[in-house]
Amino acid sequence: MLLLHGFPEFWYSWRHQLREFKSEYRVVALDLRGYGESDAPAHQESYKLDCLIADIKDILDSLGYSKCVLIGHDWGGMIAWLIAVCYPEMIMK
Predict the structure, then answer these.
(1) Domain region containing 57
(2) Which part of the chain is the AB hydrolase-1 domain (predicted)?
């Protein structure tokens, strides 16, 4: 299960859900690009949706998963929706 936070939040917004779902899933809540402890890109172009979608795809790949349960809130919801549209094979729910 991958949790994508909203604006202007960071991974900590999901702390309660991490505890709730950990018995059923491997749950990952990350800081999206430029939020929390993540690196902030120098150029605005690095925040384009295709870059953010690629980040999530790369994270799933690096975790060794080909698909996941993807949950997004606010801005993270937009990213999750676009991942579902562009890469439906990566989404379990």
Answers:
(1) 2-90
(2) 1-89
